[in-house]
C-alpha cells in the first residue's frame, strides 16, 4: 500500500522482531546547544548529569509512581472519613495565591516547551534537509523516522547540537510531570476525591515520558509537542479559574474534547510509525549490508538495528522502526487507550444530559 509512490515511501506490515523487548540502551545526556540561534532562550541552563541520571533510573521512576499512587489512595480514604470536608489550609489567602502562581507558571512553562520544541525541530530540519527547494516528502519521512541523525541515509547529519536541543526540552518537559502531581494534591486538599482518571493520568504520563526518552523514540517529541499545546490551554483555563474569572461551560466542554482529540491523534500518529518504510538510493547505502548478502532478497536485514532490507533493484528500503523499537509505542498506546476510555466516560458523565435529569 503506497501513500507517496511505489519507489519512495510505502506502508508495509512490520516484522515480529520490531516488537521485541529492547535491551537496556545507552542514554546520552543532551549536549551544549547555546550556539544555536535563540539557544539561550530554550537552553537556560546546562543539563546536570546527576539529575539526568536520576530521572532515567528505573528504580526512581517506578518508586515515585508507586509512592504517588499509594499516597493518593490513602488520602482518598482520609477524605472519605472526614465526609470530604476541605482542609483548613485550602481556605487561606496564601493558598489561593499559591494556586494562581502554580497554574500560571505551568501555563507559561507549557507555552515555553511548545515554542522550544517547535523551534528546535524546525532548526534541526533546516540543517538536515538538502538545499532549499529540493526537500521532498521522502526527506520529511526520514527526518520523522530517524530522529537520531547518526542513522541518516538521505539527510545530512549535522553535529551542531540541534537534535540535542529537542531532546533537552523534551527532558525538561518530562521532568515537569513529576511536579504536576501537585494537581492531584490540590484536589485532595479541597476535600475532594482523586478519581481514577486523575490518578492514572499523572502516574502514567511519567512512565511513558520515561520510556520515550530512555529509548530515544522518534515518536516522543511529536507527542510531547502536542501535549505542551494542550497544557498551555488547560493551565491558562485553571489560572482564570483561580483568579475568579468565570469560564463558560461550552469552553470547558471544548477543552475536554481537545484533550480527547490529543490522545486519539497521538495514538494514530505513533501507530503510523509501525508501517512506514522508505527507499534510499543505492549509492547512499554502500557498505550497509554484510558481504555476500543476496541483492534479490527482500528479507535480508542489516546487522545494525533491523531497519534496512534490500529490494530486487539493489536499492534499500528502510523501516521506520527497527528491532525492538515498537516497545515505546506499545507502552504509550496501551496508556492512551485507557486514557481515551476514561476521558470519554468523564465527558459523558459531565456534559451529557442523563434521562430524568435536567442540565443545570
Q: How does the SSE layout of this entry go?
A:
Elements: E1 2-5, E2 9-11, H1 39-42, H2 49-55, H3 58-81, H4 93-128, H5 137-145, H6 162-179, H7 182-189, H8 196-214, H9 220-242, H10 249-272, E3 276-280, E4 308-310, E5 316-319, H11 327-351
Antiparallel strand pairs: 1-2, 2-3, 3-5, 4-5
What does the radius of gyration come to?
23 Å
Could you state the order of secondary-structure elements as H and E?
EEHHHHHHHHHHEEEH
Structural class label: mainly alpha
Q: In total, how many beta strands?
A: 5
Please give the count of helices.
11
Mean pLDDT: 82
Low-confidence stretches: 1-6, 283-305
- Name the strands of the widest sheet in spatial order: 1-2-3-5-4
Overall shape: globular
Beta-strand share of residues = 5-15%
- Span between N and C termini? 51 Å
Total domains, how many?
1
Major sheet, described briefly?
5 strands, antiparallel
Helix content: 40-55%
Membrane topology: Multi-pass membrane protein
Subcellular location: Membrane
GO molecular function: fatty acid elongase activity
Transmembrane segments: 60-80, 101-122, 167-188, 200-216, 228-247, 254-276, 326-348
Amino acid at each position: 500500500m503506497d501513500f507517496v509512490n511505489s519507489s519512495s515511501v510505502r506502508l508495509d506490515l512490520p516484522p515480529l522482531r520490531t516488537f521485541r523487548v529492547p535491551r537496556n540502551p545507552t542514554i546520552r545526556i543532551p549536549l551544549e546547544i547555546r550556539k544555536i540561534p535563540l539557544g539561550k532562550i530554550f537552553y537556560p541552563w546546562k543539563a546536570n548529569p546527576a539529575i539526568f541520571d536520576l530521572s532515567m533510573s528505573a528504580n526512581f521512576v517506578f518508586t515515585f509512581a508507586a509512592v504517588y499512587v499509594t499516597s493518593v489512595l490513602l488520602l482518598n480514604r482520609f477524605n472519605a472519613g472526614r465526609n470530604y470536608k476541605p482542609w483548613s489550609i485550602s481556605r487561606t489567602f496564601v493558598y489561593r495565591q499559591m494556586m494562581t502562581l502554580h497554574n500560571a507558571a505551568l501555563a507559561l512553562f507549557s507555552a515555553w516547551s511548545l515554542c522550544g520544541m517547535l523551534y528546535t525541530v524546525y532548526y534541526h530540519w533546516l540543517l538536515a534537509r538538502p538545499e532549499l527547494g529540493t526537500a521532498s516528502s521522502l526527506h520529511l519521512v526520514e527526518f520523522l523516522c530517524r530522529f537520531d541523525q547518526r542513522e541518516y541515509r538521505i539527510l545530512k547529519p549535522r553535529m551542531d547540537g540541534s537534535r540535542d536541543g529537542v531532546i533537552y526540552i523534551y527532558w525538561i518537559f518530562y521532568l515537569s510531570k513529576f511536579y504536576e502531581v501537585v494537581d492531584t494534591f490540590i484536589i485532595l486538599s479541597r476535600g475532594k476525591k482523586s478519581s481514577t482518571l486523575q490518578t492514572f493520568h499523572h502516574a502514567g504520563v511519567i512512565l511513558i515520558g520515561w520510556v520515550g526518552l530512555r529509548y530515544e523514540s522518534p515518536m516522543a517529541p511529536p507527542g510531547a509537542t502536542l501535549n505542551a499545546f494542550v497544557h498551555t490551554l488547560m493551565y491558562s483555563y485553571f489560572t482564570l479559574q483561580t483568579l475568579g474569572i468565570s469560564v463558560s461551560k461550552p469552553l470547558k466542554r471544548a477543552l475536554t474534547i481537545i484533550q480527547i482529540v490529543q490522545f486519539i491523534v497521538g495514538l494514530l500518529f505513533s501507530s503510523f510509525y509501525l508501517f512506514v518504510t522508505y527507499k534510499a538510493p543505492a549509492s547512499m547505502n554502500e557498505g550497509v549490508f554484510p558481504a555476500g548478502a543476496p541483492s534479490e532478497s527482500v528479507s535480508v536485514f542489516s546487522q545494525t538495528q533491523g531497519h534496512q532490507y534490500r529490494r530486487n533493484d539493489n536499492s534499500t528500503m528502510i523501516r521506520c522502526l527497527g528491532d525492538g523499537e515498537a516497545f515505546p509505542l506499545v507502552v504509550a498506546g496501551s496508556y492512551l487507550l485507557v486514557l481515551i476510555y476514561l476521558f470519554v466516560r468523564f465527558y459523558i458523565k459531565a456534559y451529557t444530559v442523563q434521562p430524568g435529569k435536567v442540565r443545570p
